[in-house]
Design brief:
The structure holds two protein chains of two kinds. By secondary structure, chain A is an alpha/beta fold. In chain A, about 50% of the residues lie in helices and about 20% in strands. The longest helix of chain A has 22 residues. Chain A is globular. The relative contact order of chain A is 0.16. By secondary structure, chain B is an all-alpha fold. In chain B, helix 1 crosses helix 4. The N and C termini of chain B lie far apart (about 30 Å). Classes of the chains: A alpha/beta, B mainly alpha. Chains A and B meet through helix 9 and helix 10 of A and helix 2 of B.
């Protein structure tokens, strides 16, 4: 808590450049101490790079992650002036909003999802609500909502009985709903998909939600390209996710696999932007 | 096991049908068992589907800001009472 507050203080008082010099010792610290994350990083990089990852790869991976976490502070503090955003296919979303239709924007832990907030504000589209677990990053969230109390209004907490009823209301009022599709929750339904050559579990939630709400789905990738440069890619995914009643499970799998394929495509293009620092394929348990 | 009131049984049938529950029949749902998590194990996707089912069958629109949805969905008997009060 103390270290985090110190970093925040430096970031907000001395600026982004000063704070970024801290990224090197921070990277080194995690490289030395965070053995689980280091192993997860290496396993992932082996898969995505198609060669054995070396310690420099892992350092670069951790450094990229630390840089985007630091940038989250500036994004949440509304310091959008720091960033150069390159936004592709933004018109896809603009057309939806102009027609008064809400939509689902499905992201991932590849790159920064937080940059969505900046994208929305830069493009003057404020109705973005992000579905997230409040207990994740609880400490960070508490500090950041002190910084920017309006932040809480843009978050719909996941895991409550009313979470998706609220979500439905927001979409029908023309909001963009952001959610992440690559991490499974403690209790949610899952589906087996292939990712980087191996089977793993993805959550069913995003496709179930999209099919129930009958709302269009777009994919969102906020890739960090170094310096102050973020490349934002929006892709059309589906006008409506239709699950066939007769073979519902298979339909969910096919739709989710399509998402996993796009995620894989972008992971190969920006391998160090992968911010799932745990055993993504769950092979630790499987091999025991 | 005490048997359900006709109203509660009707709501229980709605739950089982809307959510395609296979492991439990309407008669087996206990009036006071929590519907979510530890009890019947429903999640927020189920809550959304159930709210759409309630709207279709009873014409009642659940609104996240107006009602305490967590409380309404806390048990079959609470949900039944809510539907009786609002239909």
């Amino acid at each position: 808590m103390g270290a985090l507050r110190l970093i925040l203080w430096i970031a907000l008082h001395l600026g982004r450049s000063a704070a970024r010099t801290l990224l090197y010792p921070i990277t080194l610290y995690f490289l030395v101490t965070a053995s689980t994350q280091r192993r997860a990083s290496r396993d992932y990089l082996n898969q995505v790079l198609d060669r054995p990852a070396n310690p420099l790869d892992t350092a670069r991976h951790i450094h990229t992650f630390s840089a985007t976490i630091l940038d989250r502070v500036f994004l949440m503090a509304d310091r959008y002036d720091y960033f150069a955003l390159e936004i592709h296919n933004h018109k896809l979303i603009a057309e939806q909003l102009a027609a008064g239709r809400g939509c689902i924007l499905l992201g991932s832990h590849l790159g920064s999802f937080e940059i969505l907030r900046a994208t929305a504000i830069v493009k003057r589209e404020l109705p973005v609500k992000i579905l997230m677990y409040p207990r994740h990053n609880e400490m960070m969230m508490r500090i950041l909502s002190e910084l920017n109390p309006a932040l809480n209004d843009s978050i719909i907490p996941l895991g409550q009985p009313d979470t998706l009823i609220r979500t439905k209301e927001c979409i029908s009022q023309g909001s963009i709903i952001g959610l992440l599709g690559d991490r499974i929750a403690d209790s949610g339904k899952t589906v087996n998909c292939r990712f980087l050559g191996k089977e793993t579990l993805f959550p069913q939630g995003p496709m179930l939600l999209a099919s129930i709400l009958k709302s269009p789905v777009f994919l969102f990738f906020g890739i960090y390209r170094g310096g102050n440069h973020y490349e934002i890619r929006i892709e059309h995914f589906a006008d409506e996710v239709v699950l066939e009643r007769e073979r519902r499970d298979e339909s969910i799998r096919i739709w989710t696999q399509r998402y996993a394929d796009r995620l894989q495509h972008h992971a190969r293009l920006a391998p160090y932007n992968w911010f799932n620092f745990y055993d993504f394929w769950g092979s630790d348990e499987a091999s025991d | 096991m005490e048997s359900l009131s006709p109203n509660a049984l009707e709501v229980a049938q709605l739950i089982v049908e809307t959510l395609n529950l296979e492991d439990i029949s309407a008669e087996e749902i206990e009036p006071d068992t929590p519907l979510f998590r530890d009890g019947l194990g429903l999640d927020s996707i189920d809550a959304l589907e159930l709210s759409l089912g309630i709207k279709q069958k009873y014409g009642i629109q659940l609104k996240a800001d107006d009602e305490n949805i967590t409380e309404i969905f806390s048990s079959l008997s609470r949900l039944t009472r809510f539907i009786q009060d609002n239909r």
